[in-house]
Amino acid sequence: MRAPLDPEMFDPVCPTDLTPIRFGDKWAGMIIRCLEHGPRRFSELRVPLRGIAAKTLTKSLRTLERDGLVARRAHSEPTRRVEYELTALGRSLLQPIAAACAWAQEHWDELIDAREASSLPARPGQVARR
């Protein structure tokens, strides 16, 4: 039996859109990390991904499956259930995702400063950034 996913696996105050490195859609990298230690049911994935709507999680899982990164397995015995797990191709993304996470942690303050600076209103005589 696998240990349950940690509900605090992803920091709720850490906006995923702040990190400029993406793997698929906004949620794909986090879904891949949730599947790192074995297959998970949809409801298990929703625990650490509490900010995602069921419809969005379904769409992300289908996209990951289409791209060959995640396999969907339906079991009928002893009880009907569906699990998602990483394929070999999906597992090959774990190291690049870890590198991207390490880079983002190292440059977090710079990323926040740049984001905040770009959202400030332009001063008189200064051209607004887009």
UniProtKB/TrEMBL annotation:
Annotated keywords: DNA-binding, Transcription, Transcription regulation
Keyword Transcription regulation: yes
Alphabetized Gene3D superfamilies for the sequence: Winged helix-like DNA-binding domain superfamily/Winged helix DNA-binding domain (1.10.10.10)
Limits of the HTH hxlR-type domain: 14-112
Protein name as catalogued: Winged helix-turn-helix transcriptional regulator
